[in-house]
Design goal:
Layout: H1 2-15, E1 19-26, E2 35-40, H2 45-62, H3 66-73, H4 82-92, H5 99-109, H6 113-128, H7 132-138, H8 146-158, H9 162-173, H10 184-192, H11 198-210, H12 214-220, H13 229-240, H14 256-272, H15 274-284, H16 294-308, H17 314-322, H18 328-340, H19 344-352, H20 356-359, H21 362-374, H22 378-388, H23 394-403, H24 418-425, H25 428-438, H26 442-455, H27 458-471, H28 474-483, H29 490-493, H30 499-508, H31 513-524, H32 544-554, H33 561-564, H34 567-584, H35 589-598, H36 600-606, H37 616-621, H38 626-645, H39 656-660
Antiparallel strand pairs: 1-2
Helix pairs in contact: 1-25, 2-3, 2-4, 5-6, 6-8, 7-8, 8-9, 11-12, 11-13, 13-14, 14-15, 14-16, 16-17, 16-18, 17-18, 18-19, 19-21, 21-22, 22-23, 24-27, 25-26, 27-28, 30-34, 31-38, 32-34, 34-35, 35-36, 35-38
Length: 668
């Protein structure tokens, strides 16, 4: 796809050649929607030749064949990535570069992310190689990461700047994580000259424990005052076993730090076992002068966790937590507890207790309408449904279905004039980003793109994002529409990428292709190399273990992360996994979608005897995980939007069975 679009547009997009036709709508590849490209009088073959020449020059530079490199580089003056060759050439001799050369590099290439990376590497090298005088000239020690700051301060220490060091080191010291080895000489000097006080020693020890670094904390105990050692043992014990709080005599000390330890232990116990925490907390609540906000934070977290478990005392704890002040999350869970009980008068009462801004949000207006409907006040309910039905959201679609009305999609296309196209495509960062994208150097392309977008006006960001989508870089179309709040540009927000792969997988696994598209849109925004903090990869964000198991069951090939980063393979594996979830959860897309996000084991736990006869909208609203609630609502709404994008006749957000209840027969 990238090469075909390039053959039509790259010469104008990269060389700044005259435009013979401002906007040309080209039929989408494999049935994808039309994308705008710019046609140039130049032959794009010249750009292909430049690209090949660039790659050869890069290869020659890697081999240190400087004669070949110089010859190849000479013909690339107009190629967008030629500065990368210059920077990489400099990187080969970076550690012998002079300050003047680095300054010249930044003056010439300061708008390129790689230049900043090289400068940081050079600064660190100056310190690590003991070039203190040079480092002092170019860095003041007050900025950068810990390693660079420590090296720079050591350079200034060589120049006798004792006060600067003594003032700056405490900020570096107060870290809950291990510091670079480059900081050790600086910290030694600081301690030897009386910089480390008992209070600072305790502060870092406490930070290490509360940041989940008990090993570092045990190392730091050597710096604690002798009188603080017993408290340090107590804190470490509470960290490893917060139920230690049951031994009240261990905490019977007149020291404000004991209150800190109790508060920390309670936070850990609340997360591990909120029911046990609810038993213990009343004893400690008024026992210590806790830090400001500590009691409120503990009681809010405790109330919310009890509410997500629909504990019999949840309503009481929610009210207690609200005594500290208004809080939207607490108010919302008051409504959810009432919804779970199907106590409709209480639902109305709890919504009425919300602040006006929260109360007027579509979600709570929908639940107000539902409550009124259940309480035989249909005229009031209908009026609210009518107002909501104009919304392009889960609740808007639910309201429209309630009224039997068609959905309001409110789609607007993106129009681009020749002036805007000329202005944006001439931006050096945009040109470099495109070329890096075409070379599959996605991280570098994104770095260039982000930096370029920061310098553009809002209107030009939208134009740039639409052009990127025309290249096939769909994630930038999505992000650009969101960044510019172009909510009605559905073509940008909901691209029909990889159409052949999505259609083929959906057909083979008997899935609604709109649903699979919606999952990909929610999971990765069509970023093919996306990686989550949980270690999921690709368009449909599969964990390697899940992908391996799915591949074995479905008879598909799986070669680790490489497979997951291939869009077609990822789509097929994700569709196979989704199909298995749909089968397990009795063809209920709500449950299968929730399981795709939270895991099938958790979702099975959420379907208890009390919830199986819940209406689906109540079940979705009262799921314990905020992320999964939003995820399911988004995916179901996006499924409707993708049906519209694909030109299908309007359907319904949920099937009759999905809408009625979570009554499943075969879920174990």
């Amino acid at each position: 796809m990238r090469r075909l679009i390039l053959s039509l547009a790259s010469a104008a997009a990269l060389t700044g050649a005259p435009v013979t036709q401002a906007v040309l709508e080209v039929p989408g590849l494999s049935g994808e929607p039309a994308v705008p490209v710019v046609r140039s009088t130049d032959d794009s073959a010249s750009l292909e030749q430049q690209r090949e020449r660039f790659l050869k020059a890069e290869e020659a530079l890697g081999k240190l064949d400087l004669d070949a490199y110089g010859s190849l580089n000479n013909g690339l003056e107009d190629y967008p990535l030629q500065p990368y060759l210059e920077l990489k050439h400099l990187s080969k001799r970076l550690f012998v570069a002079t300050p003047a050369e680095i300054e010249a590099m930044m003056a010439e290439y300061g708008d390129i992310p790689l230049a900043h990376t090289l400068r940081r590497q050079w600064l660190v090298h100056l310190g690590r190689s003991g070039q203190w005088s040079t480092l002092r000239q170019v860095h003041d020690g007050t900025s950068g990461g810990d390693r660079l700051r420590c090296l720079s301060l050591r350079a200034h220490l060589k120049d006798g700047r004792h006060s600067l060091v003594m003032n700056q080191v405490p900020e570096i010291w107060k870290s809950g994580y291990s510091l670079p080895k480059a900081c050790n000489p600086l910290l030694d000097y600081w301690r030897e000259h009386g910089g480390l006080t008992p209070a600072l020693a305790w502060t870092r020890f406490h930070l290490a424990v509360t940041n989940g670094e008990p090993g570092l904390a045990r190392y730091l105990r050597r710096y604690l005052d002798q009188d603080d050692r017993p408290l340090s043992r107590l804190l470490l014990n509470v960290h490893s076993n917060p139920e230690r709080l049951r031994k009240a005599r261990d905490f019977d000390r007149n020291d404000r730090r004991v209150g800190q330890i109790v508060a920390y232990g309670m936070r850990r116990l609340v997360n591990r076992d909120p029911e046990r925490a609810a038993e213990i907390w009343p004893f400690y609540r008024g026992r210590f002068p806790y830090e400001p906000g500590a009691v409120a934070a503990i009681e809010k977290r405790l109330a919310l966790l009890l509410a997500t478990r629909f504990h019999p005392e949840a309503a009481t704890w929610l009210a207690q937590a609200l005594s500290h002040g208004e809080d939207e999350a607490l108010r919302e869970w008051q409504v959810r507890v009432a919804l779970r009980d199907r106590n409709w008068p209480k639902v109305l009462e709890r919504i009425g207790a919300m602040g006006q801004e929260l109360r007027e949000k579509p979600r709570w207006q929908y639940w107000r309408a539902r409550a009124l409907d259940q309480m035989d006040r249909p005229a009031e309910a209908q009026a609210l449904y009518e107002r909501l039905s104009d919304r392009r959201t889960f609740y808007g679609f639910m309201a429209a279905d309630e009224l039997g009305k068609p959905y309001s999609l409110n789609h607007q296309g993106v129009t681009m004039n020749s002036e805007a196209i000329e202005r944006v495509r001439a931006t050096p960062g945009v040109r470099r980003a495109l070329e890096l994208y075409l070379l599959d150097r996605l991280d570098a392309a994104r770095a260039e793109w982000r930096q370029a977008m920061e310098k553009l006006e809002k209107r030009d960001v939208l134009v740039a994002s639409r052009i990127a989508q025309g290249w096939g870089w769909h994630e930038q179309g999505v992000h650009g529409a969101i960044a510019t709040r172009a909510w009605d540009h559905l073509g940008m927000r909901f691209p029909l990428a990889h159409r052949q792969s999505f259609h083929g997988a959906a057909r083979d696994y008997n899935l609604d292709v709109n649903w699979v598209y919606a999952l990909a849109r929610q999971e990765s925004a069509f970023q093919p190399d996306a990686r989550s903090h949980r270690g999921a990869f690709g368009l449909l964000q599969l964990l390697p273990a899940t992908a391996r198991e799915t591949a074995q069951k479905a008879g598909l090939s799986f070669n680790g992360i490489t497979t997951l980063l291939d869009p077609e393979a990822n789509i097929r594996l994700g569709s196979a996994h989704l199909s298995s979830l749909l089968e397990r959860f009795d063809n209920n897309r709500i449950l299968a979608t929730a399981a795709y996000n939270a895991g099938e084991y958790r979702v099975s736990q959420w379907i208890d005897e009390d919830s199986r006869d819940l209406a689906s909208d109540i079940w979705v609203e009262t799921m314990p995980y905020h992320e999964t609630r939003q995820y399911v609502r988004n995916v179901m709404a996006y499924t409707v939007i993708y049906g519209y994008r694909r030109g299908e006749p309007p359907g319904h957000l949920l099937t009759e069975r999905e809408l009625a209840c979570m009554c499943l027969d075969d879920v174990q």
